[in-house]
Sequence to fold (66 residues):
Amino acid sequence: MADEARDKMQGKGEEIKGKAKQAWGDATDDPATEAEGKVDEVKGKAREKVAEAREKLTGDDEEKRS
Fold:
């Protein structure tokens, strides 16, 4: 369970970092930085979704064992 929570927090961090990079890229008119931000944001969201799926699978496995 701790791994899932850690992955969720890391995912949220990447998502926030990505949004900040996008804003910086937009403010400085730097499309490369803006694109990097979009990639970071998507990676963060994906990491969160994987953690949620892992939680569901782990929860289902524990219920089956009981």
Observations:
- Residues 2-22+31-58 form one domain.
- The two ends are 17 Å apart (CA to CA).
- The chain has one domain: 2-22+31-58.
